[in-house]
Write a structure and sequence with these properties.
single chain; about 160 residues; alpha+beta; Thiol Ester Dehydrase, Chain A; six-stranded antiparallel β-sheet; about 15% helix
């Protein structure tokens, strides 16, 4: 049985763009094939959550080789997209910290449904602990209202 939703997605206009691609690029360092956030739908640090999206396409780097004839987004790519969402939250929350905030680990990860080329993956990050040197987020992903994965992501200052 999937865990409870962190936020009720019905309360959001999922087509709303609070931060677009250029604004995300100004915060996150990821580029090219590894830009795994299309939009930030809602950034609510006072409520401890962030909602974003990734619009997948048939041209995405994983489509050709991850199960030819039946392409499925790899779970590690789903988790990386969620990590980028959490990185955006942290970097926006601490804009004066001029150090690289990187992936520290994952825990309690479950993959519950598939993400196909053309699907829009809605990502939710809930802050569990956010400090200047490290952070912990609960993350969930959804396609068409169905939970596709959930995990706990740790981020930390690297270097």
């Amino acid at each position: 049985m999937p865990p409870a939703q962190f936020v009720d997605l019905a309360q959001f206009d999922l087509d709303h763009v609070e931060f677009g691609a250029e604004q995300i690029r100004a915060v996150n360092p990821h580029r090219y094939e590894f830009e795994l956030l299309s939009t930030i739908i809602a950034y609510r640090p006072e409520e401890g959550f962030i909602v974003g999206s990734l619009q997948t396409t048939p041209e995405d780097f994983w489509v050709r080789g991850h199960i030819p004839g039946n392409p499925l987004m790899p779970g590690v790519v789903m988790v990386e997209a969620a990590a980028q969402l959490c990185s955006f939250y942290w970097r926006t929350h601490f804009p004066d910290v001029d150090k690289f905030f990187g992936f520290g680990g994952i825990e309690e990860t479950s993959f519950r449904n598939k993400v196909l080329p053309g699907d829009r993956l809605i990502l939710v990050g809930k802050s569990i602990q956010v400090k200047t040197r490290r952070a912990i987020f609960g993350c969930q992903g959804y396609v068409n209202g169905t939970m596709t994965f959930d995990t706990v992501i740790r981020g930390l200052i690297v270097g």
